[in-house]
Amino acid sequence: MEVPAAFHPYSRNLFLSSAHLLPYHFVPENYVHWTQTPESHIYSADIPGVRKEEIRVEVEDSRYLIIRTEAANESTEEPYRSFNRKFRLPGLVDVDGISAEYVAGVLTVTVPRSFVRRGFS
Q: Are 32 and 43 in contact (CB under 8 A)?
């Protein structure tokens, strides 16, 4: 008896992942890069194809930075897409001074460091 190709041990296993069911353009790779300078922490997220109005940058409990997007495609051919990342903020940051900029598909969030002045009273 011949084994069907899908069940052959040397064929790819279709049961391990459902990614093959989705169009390749629907499963983007989103990268978030973190760098630091003496003045701030900088988070850069690659999120192309998203409108500025669909981006949310939030701070939770003064300890977590949350970057999220939610976009429902007008076309019925492509399903709903979203992006959500949560980062624990380093100690001593100025939460009120956080700024964000979205240019050419890259979101840059700048989290300034908070410096404690030490001196004599």
A: yes
Residue-by-residue pLDDT tens, the chain, 121 positions: 565 555 555 544 444 444 444 443 443 556 899 999 999 999 999 988 888 999 999 999 989 999 998 766 666 555 556 789 999 998 889 999 999 999 999 999 999 999 766 666 5
Question: Would you state the structure tokens that stand for residue 70, as one six-digit string?
Answer: 């939610």
| CA within 13 Å, CB half, 40 | 15
Tokens linked to 112: 């300034």
88 close to 64: Cβ distance less than 8 angstroms? yes
Residue 35's nearest CA partner among 44, 27, 45, 47 is 44
In angstroms, the CA 110 to CA 58 distance is: 12
Domains of the chain: 23-112 (2.60.40.790)
Helix, strand, coil percent values for the chain (each to nearest 5): 10, 40, 50
Location of structure tokens 């190709």: 5
pLDDT of residue 115: 79
